[in-house]
Amino acid sequence: MKLNPSRRHFLRGTGVALALPWMESLSAATTANNKAPVRFACVYFSNGVEPIHWWAKGQGAQMELGEAVKPMLPHREDINFLRGLYNQQAFVSTSPHLGRMPNMLSGAKVSLDPADIRVGTSFDQVLAQRIGSQTAVPSLALGVEPNELRLEDGLSMIYGSCISWASPTKPATKEIYPARTFDQLVGDGSGRVLDKTILDSVLEDSHSLQPKISRNDKVKLDEYLESIRDIEKRIERAGKEERIEGWKPTLAKPNMPRPSDKLPQNVPDHMKLMLDLTVLAFQMDKTRIVTLMLNNDLSQMNFKFLEGVKGALHLDLTHNGKAAAAEAMYLKTNQFHMEQFAYLIKRLKAIDEGGQSLLDNSMLLGGSNLFDGDTHGADQMPLILAGKGGGTLKTGRNLDYLERGNENRKAASLYLSIMDRMGVKLDRFGDADARLADL
């Protein structure tokens, strides 16, 4: 069989075409058109950090890191430590938690009217709306704790359960079951087989309805048909043997077993599974946009699995009144969260995409919405950006924005800069109309 290395290659059988992985012997003809896409993931942990342990000094291989950030030491040349970025609307909110969390990725004002749940569209969902059609799954919103529907200080805890918002009034559907996430990453991207003949029948029926319904109902029907057209696009995309770009994923089918249908009861195992699924999604190019919430805001997660932590809830550990024993346990939770982020970095760094690692072709944002969790400090956010964004980011830097003035340390400026590197250029997002300086 003659292989043309400038095209995608397939194994064909039983009506299914599977893309072969990238192979070094076929990479000679790789061109700029074959360049791997850039991916973005946000790994969020709740309730902030112990400020005295969250710091960086120096640059590159000589970078020193505070105790809370120590798990990043093996990866200090792969990260940018970002100090001082903040969201103005979170800072001025009178709600210490729910007014300062759901807008982490949007910088928008959070409505504190219980009858009007409203935040801005988060920038991961702006990306999904603009470039999500390039993959089977436009984006993934993942979590470990379920959405909570209870009230906290008169506000819906849906605010505390979601950092990804598909619209100002609708959070992106968060998936906490590893098995359902896995199913979403195989086949067409929805976890089920799609039959085009059924879709054709649905469309035919809808056309016959058009003359019989009111103007308002036509609007509803048009919205429904738009979702059907999206499914059609997925079927068409799944049936194509060639990508528009010549690049091919390094993985054609899952390299991990399907997780159990049950929700994992062990927190570290659950988090690791969701991180592994993030890697799988990127490696198979099923999506290029992921948010992962390691815990909800006001988290009820119990950290008794950590040595030296006496079974207290995360919320209690982080709101400790500066008691020495509780602060020591709070530090352990910070380190644990950074270990999860470090695990994702390590996994992506080990995957070769033709001379560059998957980490090189990614931007990973790790952090929290609050700085000092005990005082609900929103004057800055603890943020680390890993990966080279397809060669557009220099790493190994300690970037301090705290003293630059509020106009020059907006988190939304970072988001504009990230979106630029994903191919989505906006004049303004959130409260920012300028890119983050020196990034």
Description:
- It is a single chain.
- By secondary structure, the chain is of the alpha/beta class.
- The chain folds into 2 domains: 1-30 and 192-249, no CATH class; 39-186 and 253-421, Alkaline Phosphatase, subunit A, CATH 3.40.720.
- It is built from 10 helices and 16 strands.
- It has helices at residues 88-92, 123-131, 158-161, 178-184, 196-209, 215-239, 267-283, 314-318, 324-349, 411-421; strands at 10-13, 16-19, 39-44, 56-57, 64-65, 79-83, 140-143, 151-152, 155-156, 165-167, 170-171, 174-175, 289-293, 362-367, 383-386, 397-400.
- It has an 8-stranded mixed sheet with strand order 12-7-13-3-14-15-6-16, sandwiched between helices. It has a two-stranded antiparallel ribbon with strand order 1-2.
- The longest helix has 26 residues, at 324-349.
- The relative contact order is 0.21.
Looking at the structure, the CATH topology of the largest domain is Alkaline Phosphatase, subunit A
Structural class: alpha/beta
The percentage helix is 25-40%
CATH architecture tag of the largest domain: 3-Layer(aba) Sandwich
> Total domains, how many?
2
Q: What value does the Rg take, in angstroms?
A: 22 Å
| N-to-C order of helices and strands | EEEEEEHHEEEHEEEHHHHEHHEEEH
Strand order of the largest sheet: 12-7-13-3-14-15-6-16
Task: Give a short account of the largest sheet.
Answer: 8 strands, mixed
pLDDT averaged residue by residue: 85
The CATH class of the largest domain is identified as: Alpha Beta
Distance separating the two termini: 47 Å
Tally of alpha and pi helices: 10
Shape: globular
Number of strands: 16
Percentage beta strand: 5-15%
The low-pLDDT segments are 1-32, 238-245
